[in-house]
Amino acid sequence: MNYQKLDAALATALNDVQDPEETSLEVFIHTEPILDSAATAILESLGVSGVTTGKDIFTATLSQNAISQLSEQPWVKYLKRSQQLRLINRRINTRKLGV
Phi first, then psi: what are they for 27, rounded to 5°? Predict the structure, then answer.
């Protein structure tokens, strides 16, 4: 695994993985903009959808083994963990300020 291509959140999450074959980690895959047919085939075999020429960011839910395999590819720039964003349930005070 090439840890230089992983962001800190993804590297940390990999430490908590119990089964390296389980597809449990949501990631952004940043690649070179022009992918050849071999690169496209690798992405599609890992279950990445929407692989088209000229596109350079993909999202997928991958296993630890798949992340390791992708991190070793020369056309992968880096891998970043995708995390669920949460809304903050907080009311914003919209009263006008008096002068």
Answer: -135, 155
